[in-house]
Amino acid sequence: MAQLICSDLTIGYDSRTVISNLNFTVESGEYICIVGENGSGKSTLMKTILGLQSPIAGKVVFGDGLKKNEIGYLPQQTQAQRDFPASVSEIVVSGFQGKCGIKPFYTKAQKQEAEKSMEKLNILHLAKSSYRELSGGQQQRVLLARALCSTSKILLLDEPVSGLDPKVSAEMYQLIYDLNKNDKITVIMISHDITAALKYSDKILHIDKDIFFGTKSEYLNSNLGHIFNNTKDGDI
Question: Does the pLDDT at position 74 exceed 70?
């Protein structure tokens, strides 16, 4: 069942169009990787899907009963956010803010769900720790646990391994893959690492002068895939 449909979508910022007439559909439970050069519009697309900015033309349609407040989002971190003075548990449970309405406090059930998310990502032992004192990999796990509190349906991840060393990056990719396969959570992830994208995802959305959307095998057989095959590092 379709969970997200982008139809004739044209997006941009500061009156500048970066992507025109984009069409793709994300089915429930799929793992989609968005790749492309810097400045090609990947993050702009994600912000448009989230409703943080309006499309210039076209539309984003949610299916499968999905609501905007049921989307888990892990954005790229700023330095100020890395130094945020709060405990791990406070940050994780804040993922429920969009579902609290006018209630000033988190419910007991929400706090229990936050603990489950921390346990799932192996950070429950850090619950009382200061977020700003964690390693980069631990902070990303905290933010992923926070995103899980927002959703049991779909995660949007903007370069979740940015700045992490290869070992920690591999662990993060595996965590995301497990959430997709074991918990049936749809994943849409921006990545510069095409090797990892081809390893873990079901489909590739390549945004550049040319647009491609399809399976990994279709991508590798496309002109863009041939470019990847001829690169040494596999990063785009």
Answer: yes
CATH classification at residue 42 = 3.40.50.300
Q: Which residues of 26-36 are buried (b: 16+ CB within 10 A; e: fewer)?
A: bebbbbbbbbb
158 plus 236 within the same structural domain = yes
Q: Which residues contact 160 (CB under 8 A, 6 or more apart)?
A: 74, 140, 144, 172, 176, 189
Co-location of 50 and 96 in the same domain: no
Q: How many domains does the chain have?
A: 2
Return the exposure string of 64-92: e unless at least 16 CB atoms fall within 10 Å of the residue's CB, then b.
eebeeeebbbbbebeeeeeeeeeebbbbb
Q: Which amino acid is at 170?
A: A
CB atoms within 10 A of CB 2: 14
For residue 209, give its domain range. Answer: 1-66+153-236
- Structure confidence by residue, pLDDT tens digits, 107-120: 899 999 999 999 99
Q: Evaluate whether 151 touches 3 at the Cβ level (below 8 Å).
A: no
Taking the model in full, what pTM does it have?
0.90
95: left (phi over 0), alpha (psi -120 to 50) or beta: alpha
Residues 125 and 10 in one domain: no
Q: What is the pLDDT of residues 150-195, one digit of tens each?
A: 888 999 999 999 889 999 999 999 999 999 999 999 999 999 898 9
Q: Give CA–CA dist 232/221, Å, rounded.
A: 18
